[in-house]
């Protein structure tokens, strides 16, 4: 039986390892993006996985009343539900029709658990609080959960919210409660 010198064995293993490295390098080069080095992001620009984005905050508008209330920002297209101790319990974006309520304080004058909106959509948690040019203005959630933009050719005063947000507003916006509208 022939004996293999240890130097020959080491040389053979080294050559095999170099072949494996060359094959892996060729595969890696084939999958790398075709960018010049200056276009590749530097390691300092890459965020670590533990870095969390800062959530966007929506502070309660100034001069928006006091006490337990609903605040509606026309231009912000946002609602704030303000509970006890002037604490914002919830804020969320809405989709408004083309008929807006007047700025100032209003009172909830009607509520319906469900019905048909002015746009023909099946709605729930309808809370009416203002009238503009004979059209009732209020919050509602489409029963199908949609937040479609209103038809600009029709006068609609619905302020649409998600079903979850509509349920939260329904809890605070009882008959006679305040809705403060800001520009």
What does this structure look like?
- This protein is of the alpha+beta class and 183 residues long.
- Mean pLDDT is 82; it is low at 31-44.
- The protein has a domain at 69-182: L,D-transpeptidase catalytic domain-like.
- The radius of gyration is 31 Å and the shape is elongated.
- A hairpin with a 2-residue loop joins β7 and β8 (135-142).
- The longest helix has 26 residues, at 6-31.
- The protein is built from two helices and ten strands.
Task: Briefly say what this structure is.
The chain is of the alpha+beta class. The chain has 2 helices and 10 strands, in the order H-E-E-E-E-E-E-E-E-E-H-E. A hairpin with a 4-residue loop joins strand 1 and strand 2.
Features of the shown structure:
31% strand, 20% helix, single chain, L,D-transpeptidase catalytic domain-like
Itemize the secondary structure elements and their pairings.
Elements: H1 6-31, E1 69-73, E2 78-82, E3 88-93, E4 95-96, E5 104-107, E6 110-116, E7 122-132, E8 135-142, E9 158-161, H2 163-172, E10 178-182
Parallel strand pairs: 1-10, 8-9
Antiparallel strand pairs: 1-2, 2-3, 4-9, 5-10, 6-7, 7-8
Principal-axis shape: elongated
Low-confidence stretches: 31-44
Measured by DSSP, the beta-strand proportion falls in 25-35%
Number of DSSP strands? 10
In whole angstroms, the N-to-C terminal distance is 96 Å
Main-sheet strand order equals: 3-2-1-10-5
CATH fold description of the domain at 69-182: L,D-transpeptidase catalytic domain-like
Estimate the mean pLDDT confidence: 82
Oligomer: single chain
The number of helices is: 2
């Amino acid at each position: 039986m022939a004996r293999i010198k240890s130097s020959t064995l080491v040389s053979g293993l080294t050559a095999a390892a170099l072949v494996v490295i060359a094959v892996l390098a060729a595969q890696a080069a084939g999958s790398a993006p075709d960018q010049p080095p200056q276009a590749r992001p530097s390691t300092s620009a890459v965020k670590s996985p533990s870095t969390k984005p800062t959530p966007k905050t929506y502070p309660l508008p100034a001069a928006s009343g006091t006490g337990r209330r609903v605040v509606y920002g026309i231009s912000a297209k946002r609602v704030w539900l303000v509970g006890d101790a002037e604490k914002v319990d919830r804020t969320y974006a809405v989709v408004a029709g083309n008929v807006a309520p007047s700025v100032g304080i209003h009172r909830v004058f009607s509520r319906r658990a469900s019905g048909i909106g002015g746009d023909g959509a099946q709605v729930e948690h309808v809370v009416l609080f203002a009238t503009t040019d004979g059209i009732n203005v209020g919050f509602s959630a489409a029963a199908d959960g949609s937040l479609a933009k209103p038809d600009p050719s029709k006068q609609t005063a619905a302020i649409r919210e998600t079903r979850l947000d509509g349920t939260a507003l329904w809890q605070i916006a009882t008959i006679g409660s305040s809705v403060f509208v800001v520009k």
